[in-house]
Amino acid sequence: MSNKGGRPKTHGVHEHFAAAPIPPEGGKFSQLRVRCKYCSKTMAKHVQRQQNHLAKECLGFQQAAGHVDRQPRITTALSIMDRNSKDQLDRAAALAIFKSGKPYTTFEDSGMVEFIQQLNPAYKPPSGDRIATILPEVYQDYRVQVKEILDDADHLNLECYGKQKAFITPAITRWGTQLGAVMSSLANKDALRAYARDAMVLNSLKAKAIKGEEEEEEDQQVLRAILSSINNFEFWHEVEMLAKILRPIENAQRCSERDHSCVGEVIPRWLTIQSRWDALEEANQDPLINYSELRQWRVQRMKGQTTDIHHFAFALDPRTTIGEGLGLDTMERAHRFLEENTSNEEYQQLFGEFCRFRAREGALFGPTSRIYRE
After folding, report:
1. Is residue 108 located within the same domain as residue 54?
2. φ/ψ of residue 20, rounded to 5
3. Could you say which of 63, 135, 180, 329 would form a disulfide bridge with 168 (CB–CB 3.0 to 4.6 Å)?
4. Distance, CA of 322 to CA of 51 (rounded, Å)
């Protein structure tokens, strides 16, 4: 009596699989897993899935069972390669190197060799020396093609400079444009000097303005003044000095515009500007710069753009409690900020804490407290 019910037969499916270890992290792989003995692929233990793998996916099982299709696959169809086919593939490889700008040894990489072997075991990829011998012919072919294109073109557009250097016009509302204008002038120095000796420009100065054309005469006067500055060595030296003066200011302005800037950094930025100028003065490379006048301007500008809260915030920086400390002016303005913005009772408490903080004393502000830990 035949039994047509129950589970379908597995036909020895499990004989072709071995138990696979479960990953230590578990998770979705916590169920039993098996590994194919032919291709080492791992999967969850499931009879139907294992049967589909053997029948449709596993080439090793099909070869062992004699189920390989008569039509050869891509990995076996070209088991033998003639010389012409090899040369064509080598040329294609050299062309790929030429177009992509890759190193000559690209096809010597172990991963690349393995990939090509999977595509066609009969093809041995070219070495760097082999690529080098093919590329001259590739270059020559492209040279012929480019020449044909140029010969057929009615007009050609030639680029005189490798990159464009535009002039930046300073604007009072744009804090970064002052240094940008100076640096753009220096970047275009060679182009400006070439303009100043251009024959067409010089001839335009020799031409007499038509009587009554006052505007044209004024333009010639402006042009003469421009050419005089361009040809003046001292002018360019002064522009270079101006760039050195403006660069610390521009750096400080950039820092003030960043996202996490705070009032405690305002005073240090002003002091950094002065320290950069002091370094220039000490180097004595630009003796024509009036550093004492610069210092006076900096002090005057700093007083106009800072208030007591900036000095108080600077005094609350733990890094200022060591070394030389703070200047008398900063301490006086920090003290004045406390007096003007607190009541008498608050002032006594806050001033005491402020003094202990500056002296690095007490449990809250001592050298071993949290605010001084590195």
Report:
1. no
2. -105, 140
3. 180
4. 77
Tokens in use for 168?
Answer: 């930046």
Residues 87 and 144 in one domain: yes
Decide if 264 contacts 314 (C-beta within 8 A): yes
Within 8 A by CB and 6+ apart from 313, the residues are: 262, 263, 264, 266, 267
Q: Let me know if residue 292 belongs to a domain.
A: no
Q: What is the pLDDT of residues 291-327, one digit of tens each?
A: 999 999 999 999 888 899 999 999 888 888 877 778 8
Provide the residue range defining the domain that includes 139: 83-150
How far is the C-alpha of 188 from the C-alpha of 163, rounded, in Å?
12
Q: What is the pTM of this model?
A: 0.49
Report residue 254 as tokens. 């950039």
Instruction: Check whether residue 99 and residue 136 sit in a common domain.
Output: yes
Shortest CA distance to 333 belongs to which of 356, 353, 354, 362?
354
Would residue 353 count as lying in a domain? no
Looking at the structure of the chain, the number of domains it has is 3
Nearest to 53 by CA among 61, 63, 19, 118: 61
124 lies in the same domain as 93: yes
Within-domain flag for 18: yes
The two tokens of residue 191 are 């182009």
Q: Which two tokens stand for residue 302?
A: 């700093």
Query: What single letter denotes the amino acid at residue 151?
Result: D
**What's the pLDDT score for residue 72?**
47
Q: Where among 123, 150, 177 does a domain terminate?
A: 150
pLDDT in tens, 101-147: 888 888 888 888 888 888 888 888 898 888 888 888 888 888 888 88
Neighbours of 354 (CB within 10 A): 19
Residues 32 and 274: their CA atoms lie apart, in Å, by 72
Domain boundary among 231, 257, 285: 231
Rg (alpha carbons) of the chain, rounded to whole number: 40
Q: Tell me if 250 is assigned to some domain.
A: no
